[in-house]
Amino acid sequence: MHGFGPVKKQFQGWTQEGRIGSHKVLLLKPATFMNESGRAIGEALRFYKLGPDALTVFHDELDLAPFKVKVKRGGGTAGHNGLRSTDQHLGPEFRRVRIGIGHPGHKDRVTGYVLGNYAKAELDPLSDMLGAIGAEAPTLFATRFYEGELGDAGLIEELEEACLDLAREDRAGVAWSKAHGYRGYTSYASLNDLPARDPRFADLVKLLNKHVARFAEACAFDLGGRKLKLDSLWVNVLKPGGTHSGHIHPHSAVSGTIYIATPAGAGALKLEDPRLPMMMAAPTRRADAGEDHATFVYAEPKPGSVFLWESWLRHEVVPNAAKGERISISFNYR
C-alpha cells in the first residue's frame, strides 16, 4: 500500500523502509523472544538517534474484543511481555496500537491462544482490520492525553493523610466548599502554598515535574530551553454523589491530576472532544468507533495514576458513585 522496500535483517530483527504520507517510516519485527523485544527496538532507536516519542508499537490485546483497535500513548503493560520489555529499555512514553484478540475465557488457555493462528472464518475481518490500520488517513490536530504512574506507594499513603488533615483543619477551604456547593472539600480557593507548607506535597511536585517534562516533549512545545513550572496545586476530597461539571483551566499550559484514593465506583475523568461545538450537522459516531472518534473519552484512574492534558481541553469529574471519598490532587503548569 505504501511502497515499502525489501526486507532487511538488522537490529536483531527484520525491517522494511517506506513512507506514510510525508513521514519516513521503518517497520521492525524483532527476531528476539517476545520478552526481549525491547532490546531490538532500543537498538533501532539508538541507531537513528530517536526517542520513545517516535515509536509506535503494534500489539495484541486480550482485554479488547476481536478486531477492535485502540490507540494510546503511555500507560501500563497489562502483563504483556513485549510491552514490559520495551518499557524496561525505553520507558513507557511510546504510542501503542492495541489490536483486540479477545480473551479465551480462562487464564490457563491464554498461552496457547495467543500463540495460535486465526481461524479461517476470521481471515476476512482480519484483512478488513489490517487494511483500515494501513490506510493512508492521517490524523490532524491530535490531542495528547498522558497516563502515567507516580511509582511511590509510600508517598501516596502520606498524601492521603495530608489531604484528610486539610479537609479537617482548613476552615476557609471547608467554608468555601460549602458556600459553592462542592460536595466534600477542596483547597482550590483557600491555600496556594501547599508545597511550601508541607514537605509531602513538595516531594510530590518533584515527581510531577518529570511527568510534565515528558508530556511537554510529547506535545512538541517550543519552550526555548526553559521548563514548565508549577503554577497552582490543590486538594480535592469528593464525597459520594459529588461531581465537578465541565470546565477548562485558563492561563495554564498543562493541567493534570494525581489520584490518591479511588474506591470502587469513584468514577472516571470525562474528556470532551474539543471539536464538538463546531460539528454542527455531523452525524453521531458508531458505537464501535475508536477513541480518536469518540465525543467523550472516559479515563479510569487508580491510586497513583497521573493524568495530564493541555489546559484548554474541556473535562469534567463524573459523580462519585462509591461509598467512600475520592481523593485527588490537581495542578496547573505554565
From TrEMBL:
CDD domains: PTH (cd00462)
EC number: 3.1.1.29
Keywords for this protein: Hydrolase, RNA-binding, tRNA-binding
Pfam family membership, one: 2OG-FeII_Oxy_5
UniProt xrefs under SUPFAM superfamilies: Clavaminate synthase-like, Peptidyl-tRNA hydrolase-like
Gene3D superfamilies in UniProt: Peptidyl-tRNA hydrolase, q2cbj1_9rhob like domain
Family label: Belongs to the PTH family.
Protein name, UniProt field: peptidyl-tRNA hydrolase
